[in-house]
Backbone:
């Protein structure tokens, strides 16, 4: 090894210790959180060993029978699993696509509204559903789409679009749309708050200058508002990509019924029914591991696309 | 691209961390057996008896819902139980039969003191339950008296393990006054049509059709001829069970058990059941079926029935209670329902009343985490005693019933409350509130003074009928709905009990196939019903094939073995 390089290295490591010393309070302050993340996010990964065992609850670890990839093989032979995988991918993609863009559009539209009372009322009304639990939302959605006096069907029949009420909840092909739309209904207003705040922070002089230059309102949005909130959009997108991992299953569980299960069963629901539900912890863990693999794959994919267009990266 | 490099890094980090975690794990497992706080206080008084009445709190998990439960047992009956036993129950009631909660308990190793489960194999496999046999032998004279030698014998777990893990909470020698399953038809319908004979599905169809033509709307809203409660598990107990209920078999869950060879068949695979489901399909094609039947939630079902525009439904009695009460309360007595023994054709009899013998398998267990099992079994024994059983049904003497000439009588005003106040059980603490935690005497069983334990006597039931109901029953020439049904003395007692009560070994292939078959069934049978009639056969064939490729024949073999083992075990 070259002498200069060696010296560089020593210098670097000295520098590290030096910084550590001078910033020891900062390190001490962050330590509890590092420990917290370790305990709650990394320790549970130990449970993955279950997937390679014939796990029986209550028995100590060394008495469990190791069976290798048996559960994974079983998993990949199950066609239901592939349906669940398809549904998971489809619904997370739809969720990201619409759940992310619509709040931006909504925030911009709301910002263009001149009537301030109307604006405020609209904003409050749209973010309230965020606080309603999925159980209640599922009830509302079922009622609204009901063929027996549901408002959507009444409207469509009344306008002559349909001859007779249509059973939306019984058709698998509608399920993804119903989940995505109810998710948008629930979260749109809430997610728009941050964009509204960003828009409010833009310098009014820019708009005034644009007006003087004869820019139409659409031009103002395109050249001032959107570029102005670009950093915010990027941060939120990064956060949303991070949340891809948590597809969740409440919506699917609460909104589905036996007729649409083919389109409603997501991986987590599948793990719940066939893993925990049947007491097959090992099988459930195998599904869970695969779910994590899918999530990481989604994250990397989204991040890759994201980086190509913005030269920034989550990781 | 750096993605692969990064993900490789990630994997290494994970591996390193899992190695770290491995070192941590051994310490962790020691800490998991923390008992319940309230019980720790009680460890010293291990041998406490009721005389000392050291207050104790027992935690209990129940797989069924109980809207009538009052925290801290703060009801007249609850307080009396607390006073007598010193036990306060801290109860948790589940809404989905413990299907998620119990596996989570076994995964974490933390148990309440008592668990009421619907099948305990997982708990037994996890060594979570203690053997009740010696406890019952030593501390539970009342339970022994109630169940008898034979009953106790039935509680044994298996040939290899004769321990008793689950104490049944089913009624003993029950002959329910209200039929357990049937077609529920509005009084107004039969009354207007001149009390037609309704014994077959076709009769039912004709009646509904005729009435709908006469009254396309009820109270300004469209008439719904037939609907059903198919929300989550209820689809099994109402809709799917109609397959065997209409074709002369009694409830054995998803399987049909041949009474002579004890051979199990997934009941949908019986050729005759196809006819029943074909009937459903026809009903749908003719517009007699609620289009929301497979979509609606339980509360939607209740509110439809309570609005009085549903002419009929098919299902078990317990799914009818809330609608019946609501109709009664709002004075729509002619829109309440009577229950009829409808079958596919005259060749079949409703087997609702066939006796299972003592039902075991579902019931209450004491867990390893219980600090004082003796106290717990004594509490259960207290609940099973004659005195308590009477109190749970009749309430407290002088408050909810009186004794006139040595006989228990419920005063007029209490009756009034019982019938019209939906919260009566909640306010008093009677009924299923506590009866659910221990074996209990069923309807029609007499106490030591020759009076019935439950208030469900013929006379009282008749007294309790509405005028419209009386009129309808009289027109059919009977006194009670029960009288329309063939009763238990017409059928032999099933030597395997009820098949759905037999625990299936956890982690077995049978369990997975059953779940798979149920998933397929829940999806394809409703689909077949909603198809056009000429497509029904095709979908049904698809369904049969899906079952076969799910390896159902293997499951049937395994199930047959379980049934035969059980018959063997119990006949000794």
Residues:
């Amino acid at each position: 090894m070259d002498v200069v390089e060696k010296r560089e290295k020593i210098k670097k490591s000295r520098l590290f210790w030096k910084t550590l010393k001078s910033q020891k309070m900062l390190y001490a302050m962050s330590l509890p959180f590092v420990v917290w993340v370790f305990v709650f996010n990394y320790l549970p990964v130990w449970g993955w060993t279950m997937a390679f065992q014939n796990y029986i609850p209550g028995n100590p670890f060394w008495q469990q029978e190791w069976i290798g990839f048996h559960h994974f093989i079983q998993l990949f032979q199950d066609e239901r699993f592939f349906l669940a995988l398809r549904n998971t991918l489809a619904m997370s993609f739809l969720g990201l696509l619409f759940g992310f863009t619509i709040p931006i559009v909504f925030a911009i539209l709301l910002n263009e509204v001149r009537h301030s009372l109307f604006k405020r009322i609209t904003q409050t009304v749209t973010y309230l559903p965020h606080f309603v639990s999925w159980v209640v939302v599922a009830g509302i959605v079922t009622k609204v789409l009901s063929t027996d006096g549901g408002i959507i069907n009444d409207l469509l029949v009344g306008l002559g679009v349909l001859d007779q009420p249509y059973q939306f909840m019984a058709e698998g092909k509608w399920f993804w749309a119903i989940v995505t739309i109810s998710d948008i209904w629930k979260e749109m207003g809430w997610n728009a708050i941050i964009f509204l705040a960003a828009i409010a922070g833009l310098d009014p002089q820019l708009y005034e200058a644009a007006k003087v230059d004869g820019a139409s309102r659409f031009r103002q949005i395109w050249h001032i508002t959107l570029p102005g909130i670009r950093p915010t959009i990027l941060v939120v997108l990064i956060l949303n990509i991070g949340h891809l991992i948590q597809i969740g299953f409440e919506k699917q569980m609460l909104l589905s019924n036996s007729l649409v299960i083919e389109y409603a069963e997501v991986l987590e629901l599948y793990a719940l029914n066939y893993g925990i539900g049947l007491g097959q912890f090992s099988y459930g863990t195998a599904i869970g591991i695969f779910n994590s693999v899918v999530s990481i794959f989604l994250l990397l994919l989204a991040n890759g696309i994201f980086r190509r267009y913005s030269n920034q990266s989550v990781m | 691209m750096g993605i692969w490099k990064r993900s490789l890094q990630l994997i290494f980090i994970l591996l390193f961390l899992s190695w770290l975690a491995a070192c941590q794990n051994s310490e962790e497992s020691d800490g998991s057996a923390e008992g319940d706080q309230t019980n720790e206080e009680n460890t010293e008084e291990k041998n406490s008896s009721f005389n000392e009445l050291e207050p104790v709190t027992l935690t209990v998990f129940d797989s069924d819902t109980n809207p009538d439960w009052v925290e801290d047992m703060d009801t007249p009956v609850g307080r009396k139980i607390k006073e007598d036993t010193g036990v306060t129950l801290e109860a948790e009631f589940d809404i989905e039969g413990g299907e998620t909660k119990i596996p989570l308990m076994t995964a974490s190793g933390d148990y309440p003191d008592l668990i009421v489960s619907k099948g305990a194999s997982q708990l037994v496999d996890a060594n979570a339950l203690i053997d009740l046999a010696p406890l019952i032998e030593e501390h539970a004279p009342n339970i022994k008296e109630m169940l008898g030698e034979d009953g106790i014998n039935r509680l044994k777990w298996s040939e290899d393990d004769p321990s008793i893990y689950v104490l049944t909470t089913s009624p003993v020698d029950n002959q329910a006054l209200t039929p357990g399953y049937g077609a529920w038809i509005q009084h107004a319908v039969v009354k207007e049509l001149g009390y037609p004979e309704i014994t077959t599905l076709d009769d039912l169809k004709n009646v509904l059709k005729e009435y709908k033509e006469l009254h396309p709307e009820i109270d300004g809203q469209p008439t719904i001829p037939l609907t059903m409660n198919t929300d989550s598990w209820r689809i099994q107990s109402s809709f799917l069970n109609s397959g065997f209920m209409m074709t002369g078999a009694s409830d054995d869950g998803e399987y049909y058990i041949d009474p002579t060879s004890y051979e199990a068949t997934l009941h949908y695979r019986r050729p005759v059941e196809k006819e029943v489901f074909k009937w459903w399909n026809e009903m749908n094609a003719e517009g007699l079926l609620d289009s929301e039947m497979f979509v609606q939630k339980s509360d939607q079902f209740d509110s439809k029935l309570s609005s009085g525009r549903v002419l009929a439904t098919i299902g078990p009695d317990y799914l009818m209670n809330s609608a019946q009460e609501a109709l009664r309360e709002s004075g729509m007595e002619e829109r309440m329902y009577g229950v009829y023994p409808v079958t596919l054709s005259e060749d079949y009899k409703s087997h609702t009343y066939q006796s299972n013998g003592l039902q075991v398998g579902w019931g209450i267990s004491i867990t390893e985490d219980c600090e004082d099992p003796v106290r717990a079994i004594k509490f259960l024994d207290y609940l099973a005693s004659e005195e308590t059983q009477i109190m749970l049904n009749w309430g407290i003497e002088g408050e909810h019933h009186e004794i006139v000439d040595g006989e228990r009588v419920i005063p007029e005003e209490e009756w009034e409350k019982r019938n019209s106040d939906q919260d009566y059980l909640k306010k008093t603490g009677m009924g299923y509130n506590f009866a659910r935690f221990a074996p209990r005497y069923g309807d029609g069983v007499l106490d030591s003074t020759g009076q019935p334990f439950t208030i469900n006597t013929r006379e009282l039931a008749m007294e309790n009928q509405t005028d419209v109901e009386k009129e309808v029953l009289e027109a059919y020439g009977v006194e009670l709905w029960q009288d329309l049904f063939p009763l238990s003395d017409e059928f032999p007692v099933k030597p395997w009990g009820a098949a759905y009560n037999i625990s299936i070994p956890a982690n077995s292939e049978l369990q997975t196939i059953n779940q798979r078959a149920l998933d397929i069934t829940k999806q394809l049978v409703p689909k077949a019903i909603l198809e056009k009639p000429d497509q029904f056969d095709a979908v049904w064939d698809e369904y049969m094939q899906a079952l076969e490729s799910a390896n159902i024949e293997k499951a049937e073999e395994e199930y047959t073995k379980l049934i035969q083992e059980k018959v063997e075990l119990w006949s000794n």
Q: What stands out?
A: The radius of gyration of chain A is 26 Å.
